[in-house]
Amino acid sequence: MSAEPTLVAGAPPTEPPSLPASNGAGKPTVGLKTDILLVDDREDKLLALEAILQSLDQNIVKARSGKEALRLLLKQDFAVILLDVSMPGMDGFETASLIRQRLNSEHTPIIFITAIGSTENHISRGYSLGAVDYMLAPIVAEVLRTKVSVFVELHRKTELIRRQSEQLRRDIAARKRAEDQVVQLNHQLEQRVAELTEINHELETFTYSIAHDFRGPLRSMGGFAQALVEEEGDKLSPLGLEYATRINRSAKYMDNLLLDMLTYSRLAMSELPPTTVRLEEPVNELLGIVEHEIRERRVQVEVASPLGSVFANATVLKQILTNLIGNSLKFVVPDRTPKLRIYTTSDDKFVRLWVEDNGIGIAPEHHAKIFGLFQRLHDAQKYPGTGLGLALVRKGAERMGGRVGVESQLGEGSRFWVDLPVANGA
Amino acid sequence: MARKMTNRILYVEDNPDDVLLTELAFRKAGAEVELTVVPDGDKAIAALQTNGSTPLPDCVLLDIKLPSLSGLEVLAWIRNQPKLKRLPVVMLTSSLLPDDVNKAYDLGANSFLAKPSDLSSLITLAKTIDHYWLQTNIRAARPA
Predict the structure, then answer these.
(1) Looking at CB atoms within 10 Å, which of A194, A406, B31, B68 has the fewest?
(2) Which domain holds residue A296?
(3) What ipTM does this complex have?
């Protein structure tokens, strides 16, 4: 007896729609079982057919009448129907014509089985009703198997293609949705960037306006305080003179602050056209400006020439050097001879300009924040400054496609570096 | 020194504090300068349309941010007047915007000076203006 359950109605194939490898020679490919419907009023003939087809390893469903066959066809789809012509009640022809009338079975292959000696008329009627083949009993097992396996294979392939095209349709829909989403996200991103750029520009303009407009009244405060000291000083008490001097000093400090803010916002806003700059030029120029201070404090200065050439904006480069050299001269340790060493290291893309001192140094936990805006580590009494110097250095370096950093230990001096694009052919 | 004539400057500035401090600076600089101060662009143009009744200034000190016409508009107007196109115009302003600087030179400014923030620097600047623009610089003849 067959291990397969017979009369399996409506068991849809559940295997994934992978294309099975064909193992040739009439045997259907594995992976996807199809249903074969046998229709005969005689149980012995049904059993005989089932036995012949068992080796095809498909689901075999048996019907004992045309009515039962039609009922089964309502519930499921078959790869092929083997239909006995002579049955009591509804015969094979009638059954076939009813099968053909139904939309979902109008193309199901039907093989008529009839006894030898049937008339020609019998056969042609069968074909006219939509039979795809005709088999005469007694049946040659091998021939029947071969014929059935062709339809089984056809059905399996059709089903596979249907599933694959369905999958493809889903894939395409999913991809289309994903693409639409990407387009939409891209659009949102572009909008965000435009908004942020606009806001950023507004902020920079705002900073500039504030810094600029605040300088006017400050100029008056400082100027008149100084005029008070110089022009009317003889009428003031020593305390009055001191007050006026303090007003002037504060005005000056605030003006420096605003100037740095202006420089910073200009750095952020302006076009900064780069040229090839030989580093010795700005370095020597700026050391010249602080020459008096260097001599007064007996600073040991060393410039390790040649420093090389960079592709940078000369003005911004000078601002960077002014701040770094200025810091080296400012944050000195009392009773220690200040040393300032300027040198470069480089690779094929960047020149790293080092400004090294033996000053008070910076604790590692502060290394990240000192390049931020308004960051001060010391009180203004001891080390005056606006807290903007290193922010200017960083902004300047970034605008020129470079980076900045520091290596330092508290009490042991600092080494600041600026990476700038190496000049072509330098 | 053969320098007897007092030089005349037309100073276009709307901020009375700046006017007062600049006047003080020129005085302390020891410059023999006659400063005529006008507070806006329209009055600057009016002061320069003299038809020969009063002499033209030797130099114009021009602020940029002004009520009514801006300093740059006054400058453009000056350079469009055949009789004024050789007149030295020195921008004296607190604007450091590269745009303003470039525009001023494009329009024919002779110099662009930033207003100093303290009196000492302002005095130095007054000395410099007097020395350079009024004494050293050789002025062109007025176009006919």
Answers:
(1) A194
(2) 275-421
(3) 0.77
